[in-house]
Amino acid sequence: MARELMLVRTEDLLLNPTNRVPIALCLDASGSMAGAPMDELNQGVRVFFDALQADPIAKASAEVALVTFADRAETAVDFQGLERISQPPVMTSTGGLTSLGEGVNLALDLLETRKDEYQNAGVDYFQPWLVLMTDAQPTDISNAQQAGQRACDMEGQGKLVVINIGIGTSADMNTLAMFSKKHKPFSLQGLKFRECFQWLSKSVIRVSQSRPGEKMDWDYKGIKGWGTLD
Fold first, then answer.
1. Which domains does the chain show, CATH number per domain?
2. Each residue's pLDDT tens digit, 28-38
3. What pTM does this model have?
4. N or C: lower Cβ tally within 10 Å for the chain?
């Protein structure tokens, strides 16, 4: 299966050499997300995929990986062309742990691997994105600290854009702040995942219509529809 996916990923780059926008969604799937939060998160992720697939430029440019973390981190979707993904998998909340650091490290590993594949195929790409969402404190503190330093180092080198989003009142915003020195974490209003992912998809579409290396001005006014900036 891994070899088949690798062939597919290589074929995607050969058939479609469009500049890529790699986005890694790193999402909390711990037990505290059970019920309505996970239902709304699943709907938001579907809105995100649908919006990107509906835009011709973004559909050719954007690639999304989906990582979930609870007792352990897992790759739910690895990078590949959006036309190959009819619908993202339905996530379920499992486990009592919040292995946030492990999740971020896995997401960054996937981004690094895909960047190497872009370079080997001669395909240009925009700054990779890490979108991190959690409603709790990490249970793997040392891993989270190491992953936070890793993300900040990549961000400082211009190799990563980090978007951190805290879900609910139990989210540890101080921990989320460790993952970026350029952008403060956002707080999600209630369960407005769909509005959040609509904003994210519009941001990705804007990037896909620009040129690699071109500075992007974030639509902070649009955040008011779903969150607050801490």
1. 22-126+133-211+221-229 (3.40.50.410)
2. 999 999 999 99
3. 0.94
4. N
